[in-house]
User: Fold these one by one.
Assistant:
Number 1:
Amino acid sequence: MQDNLSSFFEPQSVALIGASSNPSKLSYGILKNISQYGYRGGIYPINPKSNEILGFPCYSSILDVPEEVDLTVIILPAEIIPQVIDDCGKKGVKACIVISGGFKELGEDGKQREKELEISTRKYGIRIIGPNCVGNINVYSGLNTTFIKGMPVKGGIGFVSQSGAVCGGVVDHVVQEGIGFSHLISLGNEMDVNETDMISYLADDENTHVIACYVESIRDGARFMEVAKHVSKKKPIVLLKAGKSELGAKAVSSHTGSLAGSHTAYSTAFKQAGVIEVSSLRALLQTSMALDMQPLPQNKQAVIFTNAGGPAALLSDSLDEHGLKLANLNEKTQQMLKAKLNPAAQTMNPVDMLGGATQGEYAQAMRVVKENNDAGILLPVLVPQALVDPVAVARAIISETQNSQRTTIACMVGKQSTQEAKLLLHQQHIPLLDYPEDVGEVLGGMLRYKAYHDAPAETLEISRIAQKEEARSYFHGLADQKQFGEAETRPLLELYGVKNVEGKRADSLAEAQQAAKELGYPVVIKVISDEILHKSDAGGIRLDIKDERSLADAYQDMLTDVRSHAPEAVIKGVLVEKMQKQGEEVIVGMKWDANFGALLMFGMGGIYVEAFKDVSFRIAPVSEVDVRNMIAETAAGKILNGLRGIRYDIDAVVQTILALSQVCLDFPEIQELEINPLKVFSKGDGAAALDSRMIIK
Amino acid sequence: MQDNLSSFFEPQSVALIGASSNPSKLSYGILKNISQYGYRGGIYPINPKSNEILGFPCYSSILDVPEEVDLTVIILPAEIIPQVIDDCGKKGVKACIVISGGFKELGEDGKQREKELEISTRKYGIRIIGPNCVGNINVYSGLNTTFIKGMPVKGGIGFVSQSGAVCGGVVDHVVQEGIGFSHLISLGNEMDVNETDMISYLADDENTHVIACYVESIRDGARFMEVAKHVSKKKPIVLLKAGKSELGAKAVSSHTGSLAGSHTAYSTAFKQAGVIEVSSLRALLQTSMALDMQPLPQNKQAVIFTNAGGPAALLSDSLDEHGLKLANLNEKTQQMLKAKLNPAAQTMNPVDMLGGATQGEYAQAMRVVKENNDAGILLPVLVPQALVDPVAVARAIISETQNSQRTTIACMVGKQSTQEAKLLLHQQHIPLLDYPEDVGEVLGGMLRYKAYHDAPAETLEISRIAQKEEARSYFHGLADQKQFGEAETRPLLELYGVKNVEGKRADSLAEAQQAAKELGYPVVIKVISDEILHKSDAGGIRLDIKDERSLADAYQDMLTDVRSHAPEAVIKGVLVEKMQKQGEEVIVGMKWDANFGALLMFGMGGIYVEAFKDVSFRIAPVSEVDVRNMIAETAAGKILNGLRGIRYDIDAVVQTILALSQVCLDFPEIQELEINPLKVFSKGDGAAALDSRMIIK
């Protein structure tokens, strides 16, 4: 497939079908862009009404072109494109970029038209980018099939975008800033080639050091995760997801016509796949630039060199927010700094060299710190001052950080006085940010990536204790209904090794009393009814029943209560369970996500679930390390781990989550599965599912 | 005081003491700035070694100036400044800006020097800005006493900064962007004039519509709150606080030598005083610009007009994050839009007019929405496209929003193609942001301000039920120690109307049994010991004791337990209390903040306090509305309000917090006071303090 895709970016020749000689037409702009940035292959405008455009001989049809054509760029009314594709097929074209809109994004008619387009391309095995895109730019070969004004300089950022406009906006932002790119790829409707294909392609592209993505939806989440996990071990993927909120999702869906999944599943997937998710378009550019230009930080210790206290304070806040530290400069280092700097300078970190600090002082201070401290991150900060030349300071920063193996990000708080310094720094691969508050997110992203990159590969868990055959026959023997309560869910969980609270089903008071006798008092009773999913809200639970007589009272009382709360509910019986000793109640659940599959959840259980929303997520399959991290992320996890003095049996929770993961992978028919509460006992004493329920798709 | 301060900004004449004829000196730059931006008063450089500088006759001493001098700007070695101040005093100078550093910021010696400076200025009643500042700019009069390069255009932002460098950085950012200012004021060490004085001054300055502040610490928090509350009713204060995190606070404190308070107290104070706290320097500029240029939003409904879906999705995410909504466009409005726009355009909100959208389409779409929808906010978004002129679109936006009374913020995603449009929009008072993600924070700040501005003035509560005389004599009769447990804290709370759990003190088992008999079983017993503040951790509590015999067992058991946990603790007795019925446990507390005074806290109580940190804060004194909001902000408040089906007695919690507030205002000697837990019963049944403690300063 890779070879196939290379025709988009390294074609021997390209034809523009729908070329125009009218400079006010987009297709004129495209031909100009194809021809003006050094692309060396054949260029063939196709238009039956022109003889030549921009000096290139024009052909009536792709079939008339004397040479072979690898790539066509099509900008024509949507209706006639399937016919044109047919010609391309006959000509042996390998790849085709369809700029034109008028397809899926317009609704039903357009969808139909896109279907036809798909059929005609399949017939010839032609790969398609688009339709409804703005084209691609290969900065290294100079092939620019867009109508975007300007061309970024060469660099290592490969940019993949589900919005053509965002591509254009990015170019408009960076062309004067010297931020270098390898590719800019607009994907349009993703009829054929999608974001995952492009990530995979850029992973093998030697000019690309960082893959930057703007994404609105990912349709094949499982494949995305598989590819991204693999690619992230090799080079970083930085990603901005639009449509995170309900409002944003609405904006996306009216835009692309595709249903955006919940953001929880997306951000969980990104984290698990080592993808650096960023919060803004600005952070997407800044983080990608830093990853392209600089080595990964060797540690989270940073040193700030500044000529002003205020911006250093803002920068420190930003570092703190993203988990970075200020390195401790020891007495000796501080003495050496004092000797080189203004006597009034602050030699703690931030190193504040005061307003008059010269390029020489920046160089001296950075040198002293490099030689005496292991901090992985150097952060020179400058506020333009009357007597200091930002370009000279930029030169000092460049010479002190070259080959230093320290991650360097410069910050100059200004605009009119700092543009020349910025260009110079960017040319020398040192990122310059205009505002100190932006630095933390960039470094935080780099550190998260480094942690993923350096972590040993983990084995995804396949449960060894599941009795799969029995589970299969039990599951397929379930009644034909969508919702199942505890009585039906328990046996399935049990077959995967989940310990349920000891209990028995009873159809009468006598049976219940018999069951209680066998289990031993105190017991709990719960109503069994398909219509009642939240038993406690319907009065369908009685706790801590101490003897036979209390059981009789509780039994009658509960049934009366349930009948008044839910008169239409069919009561199938009661569960008699052993009353459990003291423990912490947690929730373990799974919700099927349309894009990514089984989304596992863990958190504080019981009555506080809704109030605190103390939950964390992972997408199955998971490794044991994943699950332990998932637990540790929550307050519930901290409580289990001894926050209140008692250490609970976290291992039992881990096993329960792994079991749930396996159930959901084995039975993708399950839409939701929840154990709430799972009662966790002291370390070594295990855990027991006190209640569970399940919804089938 | 106001009149006094006006000499800094509207002097009839200004002398620069320490003027230099050497263009590489800062003082040369200052004289140039004083003279080049249209200031019309007298200008007198003072330097015994020069005859004239920049065409101005030079004087040996301020005493030689033939005219009266209102303002002097001093840039001289720190040591000789007190002497110079003496001359200024003799000359009758009213105000003095001391640019020079070498004072408090250098440590002990400098502090001493600053003290001397203060004494000499007090003697003559001279007001001082600085020392260690970069001077001020009055954009309207043209008086610029800084050495900053460039001068912003005239506008309504009055900028006050505790960092001179931040002032310089801001100017460097805005001079080419047409963002208008009234004043830029660098405060330096705030020996005399501080941020609160300047807020108060700018509140009455007719050229200033918005007060923007960069702040590192506020020393007199109470006065700041009083002034800011008042000013915020008149014009908005936008504020960025540096040193929010521990790292940042360290950076600030090594910088200004002042101790930064905890950020919780700061952000609580800002919220209560109507101050719009922002998260970054960029947001400070953007929010101030929007407040200066645009009317406040009439509601939180926004309509997006865009030529690209991606940026509209990012913008929608940003709106959602800050509590804004996308207005619903009704069928009729959508029909009218369809008639005016490209048939493929999306007429839902965001209104996506597609890539080719012209200025005419922007104008038409905005007009239709203005005439058919009440949304208070209009958000035109443009991504530069090959065939669309950003300046023409800017003109359309200007003509459609003038006199519209809708808050308009434009967003153009780019840089190279959008600068001219930006300048034009800013000249016409429409803010243009480069990135869609920035819009939400700006509008969110405007809406928060509007809510404060429009809210009726509230009466701060003075408790009517406190028995102040009795409280005073009780409090002053307390033993001479720092920490007090429940036994000593209960009576004080009671005198302020707080209901404690019913209980009695006992010194022996027999007394305890007698007390329990009177209270009625079941009871709780708790140890009384000054050395034990966390009774449950020390084994000093026994719950739910049902009869006399159990009490005997529990009594012995508890004392044995306490003695093994805290062998050195002196046990003064036990408290016997009535066991309380079911209720929710919350925490109500107060911690004295060095800058702002009594910081009240409310949140989830009991064992989950530490795990969830579900707490909210207010600074005393508070209104009843403040307290109700404070409760509503937490998950605990939602639970009390019926989240789990039961509504609890919130009124009783409100009264308890008001009482606590009053105790702390009446006894500023109290460092900490905490009721944990306060057990809240069902609506109408009140609340009871189950435990309390107190620390005296």
Note: Chain A has four domains: 6-208, 295-454, 502-578, 584-696.
Number 2:
Amino acid sequence: MIHTGRHFLQIPGPTNVPDRVLRAMDRPVIDHRGPEFAILGKEILAGMAAIFATSSPVIIYTSSGTGACEASLANTLSPGDRVLIFETGHFSAIWRQIGERLGLAVTYIPGDWRRGASAAEAEARLRADSSHVFKAVVVVHNETSTGVTSKIAELRRVMNQLGHPALLIVDAISSLASIDYRHDEWRVDVMVCGSQKGLMLPPGIGLNVVSAKALEASKRSRFPRSYFDWASIIAANAQGFFPYTPPTLMMFGLREALALLREEGLENVFARHARLAEATRCAVVAWGLEILATDPRERSNTLTAIVVPEGVDADVIRTTILERFDMSLGVGLGKLKGRVFRIGHLGSFNELMLAATLCGVQMGLRLCDVPIGDGVGAALEFLTAPKSGAAQRAPALV
Amino acid sequence: MIHTGRHFLQIPGPTNVPDRVLRAMDRPVIDHRGPEFAILGKEILAGMAAIFATSSPVIIYTSSGTGACEASLANTLSPGDRVLIFETGHFSAIWRQIGERLGLAVTYIPGDWRRGASAAEAEARLRADSSHVFKAVVVVHNETSTGVTSKIAELRRVMNQLGHPALLIVDAISSLASIDYRHDEWRVDVMVCGSQKGLMLPPGIGLNVVSAKALEASKRSRFPRSYFDWASIIAANAQGFFPYTPPTLMMFGLREALALLREEGLENVFARHARLAEATRCAVVAWGLEILATDPRERSNTLTAIVVPEGVDADVIRTTILERFDMSLGVGLGKLKGRVFRIGHLGSFNELMLAATLCGVQMGLRLCDVPIGDGVGAALEFLTAPKSGAAQRAPALV
Amino acid sequence: MIHTGRHFLQIPGPTNVPDRVLRAMDRPVIDHRGPEFAILGKEILAGMAAIFATSSPVIIYTSSGTGACEASLANTLSPGDRVLIFETGHFSAIWRQIGERLGLAVTYIPGDWRRGASAAEAEARLRADSSHVFKAVVVVHNETSTGVTSKIAELRRVMNQLGHPALLIVDAISSLASIDYRHDEWRVDVMVCGSQKGLMLPPGIGLNVVSAKALEASKRSRFPRSYFDWASIIAANAQGFFPYTPPTLMMFGLREALALLREEGLENVFARHARLAEATRCAVVAWGLEILATDPRERSNTLTAIVVPEGVDADVIRTTILERFDMSLGVGLGKLKGRVFRIGHLGSFNELMLAATLCGVQMGLRLCDVPIGDGVGAALEFLTAPKSGAAQRAPALV
Amino acid sequence: MIHTGRHFLQIPGPTNVPDRVLRAMDRPVIDHRGPEFAILGKEILAGMAAIFATSSPVIIYTSSGTGACEASLANTLSPGDRVLIFETGHFSAIWRQIGERLGLAVTYIPGDWRRGASAAEAEARLRADSSHVFKAVVVVHNETSTGVTSKIAELRRVMNQLGHPALLIVDAISSLASIDYRHDEWRVDVMVCGSQKGLMLPPGIGLNVVSAKALEASKRSRFPRSYFDWASIIAANAQGFFPYTPPTLMMFGLREALALLREEGLENVFARHARLAEATRCAVVAWGLEILATDPRERSNTLTAIVVPEGVDADVIRTTILERFDMSLGVGLGKLKGRVFRIGHLGSFNELMLAATLCGVQMGLRLCDVPIGDGVGAALEFLTAPKSGAAQRAPALV
């Protein structure tokens, strides 16, 4: 296949890596035990804490996001512990799989893949758990497979009201640095993230942010673990170092990505994502297609999953768009295969990249003979409407 | 200004440099007198000739395109020689200025900046010139300031029919490797080009392609010249070298750009430009705006200059689009200042980049309260119409 | 600190990343579930197998080498299993630590950090183990902390002769693609490696190569594991994919690194390392200093650890060299702190880079008033001696 | 040829481009008529003036250094004008050639290619020229073909004492930003330079720095010129722009190179060059070879030309070193072909890069059976001698 001009990578992550980040990584490796690295390491760890408004330790792994999921469980729990996981979609199913592989007892609260985690369900389950069997509640903040954002603050409120001591573990892989997330305010115990979404890096780094309570739990955890063990990492981090060879060039990229976020301002980053997401939703409505997320307040600002009409294969649409317009869209995962396609609108992204994306989708749908309205026109109208300035300030899902 | 996501550089050159070309240039410099450079130099010179279907020497200057313009005159003519230059726009005016600065006698055939060079006018002037006072005819193949393409083959036919011995000098700066150009078939004597348009490189290289007749003329030329002198360059080129330090990294980029053109196929490159240009014109028509080029057969496949309605300042539109959507459009040059803006749709460019461009223009026009129709919709329709496949094969302007 | 000119990164890994590899990684990320990635994934997996002359599966982790160590144990063993680990230096101690953290029973055969794994000791221990308590023998092929290479083939012979069924797990982190290693011939069960040494990539990838016997063992292993689990990776690899988001840009780098190794030829790569290592040893001898590795047949071809005279602090020498000459050398790890410094001479490395390295060390030693002879002269003599051609073919340590 | 590790580019320019400069150039092109470019252009022009301690205009050409030579003559003189050029070597011969090609009357003061421009000769010639026939004196500050630095200040004194009104044109191509050069203090009228030496950029930019007197002369100059004309460039520069498309990516590189020079400090840059040059000369003396430059006070701090013994072909040595050690050295130019080779020790360069270079030369000489002493040892001794700190402060050649 001949690529002419730019490929449009509009899957919901990995996202488009900004040139500045790529350039920051295109450089010689340095000694990870030398003074220059120590400065770099400290700068990044401080920068991460500042950006994410937390005073908790940030743990950087050479791993995918999935590795960081495992780390969150393996550091805090013990074999046989019971955890509550909300079924939100494909990635909650992966959490369940990880939990079960590790030997945890998983209570999987069923969901229809179109709604976020239910605070009411959580309340019922946790209220019934007077003996505090549940050691952790795991929730995916933003389900990358469905485009549904769960209300973490509401869950937290329920847990607070019940005084339930379970750890709150939040998968913020596709929300961090894109959708408002308040680690300390929401008293999240372990936040799980990766480098390749809102942080605008290539894949290669997994992250945990760890509360004091989680740290305390890690001392009692009886899981055999070494690579993902927090303690040795936190110890080495104090001097800016890592117990194992860190991904040096990714670290240079991460420093630059943090600079980009700081320059734009995190509030502006969130507002930009909200605005571009709303424009996307305007397009879907005008196309006459269905957004998978049924509750408007839960629709994700980082991706939109679109249900194709009966009789249409979403993968045929995706393939058509890839072959004709050199744009990658997200596949329907798990039971959504062929039923939805997903548009990623997060990371280093702007109005015209979104416009191109929507044009590509609109043309692809027409080439596949899906009868649709003019979504592009609706999105452009939204983006130029006087009121859209107001829409920039997205209400936090609290 | 915070750039988030990609800037859209949609001026009619410099064009977007493909990542592969940037990467080819991001490397250590090598000895320009060593064996590795000799191989590189020969490979590029052969590749240029092949791509441009010429057996004539290709001269590579470290210069802007303007330097290559001067070179074409300084190598072939002598002070006081009379040359015929067609007024096609701002860049023909620069040719006139260069000619006059060099001390040539310029006959500047007037034009209205909306039409190409007139073969009829050429015929009249050259027929009247029985004593062969005109030593050269200079024509801009594709006027970058107006988006008008002149019919070189027709001019050549006139010159042939009259048996006029003047040299034919063609400025192909914004047409080469984008619009069909036939150096040998059209018997062009000096082709003038630069690196930063269809060749998809950054600015930094100027080019001449030189016929045997032009080479012969250069021996009689009495202009003082050194840097731009063809003879010493051609001599050194035989071994793959250059008489002066060549722009080494640009050469690596040029090798990669030639590979890209070869992989896509020059015919496909032309068809792609024709198709994207036609989509742009569909948009302009649907907007209800005027294309500066009045004759549909002369409308450029590499850029479109759009006339803004009376009372509107084109520069306000451009500035709005730059500030709101981070897209650069071409300014109205010379007497067109404020009256037109120009969309570049050439080089490393594809459907979705064009879609983004047109969306940006449409939103910018609306934000400036210019009453317009739905140009984007028209363009998307064209790009997905079954017949648009046929339109891919653009008729050569002959 | 002002860097002028190039930094010399002469730690024994991460090694200097070749420009071609850096450039291959400096590019847009692609969809890790799309057809282009599938081709890339398959190409890399096939290339790895070919380069390492194995028909066994190669497992690619987003991890440091340490992660791959853990993976080798967690996939093949069960809690409480007894493993035999040879004390060869700091990295064997890390193996012990990993083993103990995972809950394995470790028999740690003591060593003096100056010799390789003792086949005689192995024979004694395994012969005494008639009930086959030892489930695995773990050996570091090339101890990065000491510069000692162990004779894997000899160990294998012992195991074969005794018919002991323990798995043979080999840490080839600082030997792979630099020192002759024969996975299939030596019947290694799990090879553990990373990206940042002989593979010339930045850190970020950990590797396992897995024998059929190890694969069989993995089915019986009772360690809780998810991220490092071989089965799901091998399954996804069949289509060129990965179960979790792979480190896309590292994959492009890996493809280029494999191309570099193929172009040079693995035999030539080994010979080059042997030759540059021998030159280094000539220098150390001429300096009158002691090589930590006592047995000449075990001296590593990828790094040399040099013992400083009594009363000298090796870290003062390292710091002097870093500050005066912008060269990073390897620190003395664990109990060797302050007693040795280590020169890395592996990866993308050549005669003049070695010459610079040795000059830097010689000047640093003199600035620290260590009385030494002319090591540089000896190395240069070796490198230009007619006989040094013969020395290029290093005898395999078998 | 397989490159393993880094190529050593030790010709006296183009020099090794620092990674930071390469990375600054590896980025998207921007609109050269837009507001972002205006800021860049102004910043660079101001930075150049500051670095070169001049209040005169700096002219940036897309050209090789040779183009900037032509520009200096074509802007200030008229056909038939007489100029005085000192024969210092191959590059003074190119100046003569350019002058003659342009139609100037050249008085070429003979030299033996081993000495700098003779102030005594200058005095004799200019004193005899009471009618001020000489319109310009052209001198190469640092002859790249011979490694001889001429005393510009002394020449200036002679001209001052005689009150001779000729323009002083200085070729600082291989001295600028490496050897002390004082544009305003020495009252140089036109300084000629290129990007690829001390400025550490790839080739592609030529420079003039222009005194008020030269600017005045340019108004009377009758050479036909357009591309190289100062007036239109200076006019456009006032707004940060250029009359023709500037080499955008080179401009980003230039900004970064100026930052590098500023960070190190120009005095330190000069001292570093002096120190590394002196180390090189120590090596040549110890080898028992002859430095081409006969007067120690004129030996260049940016390159050293070394005379090979009778019966030895310098090109065989160079080829041997290139093929065996992947290092490029400077060829003997013009009448020095085969008699000398040249070591470039300028630009982004440090002690260990020099050590590698000298080791490569020493090994190459030995492989070619040239009987030599231990130059490397002498250089290392110099570089670590307590007194070498003093040598860092090179006496300005005044």
Note: Chain D has a mean pLDDT of 95.
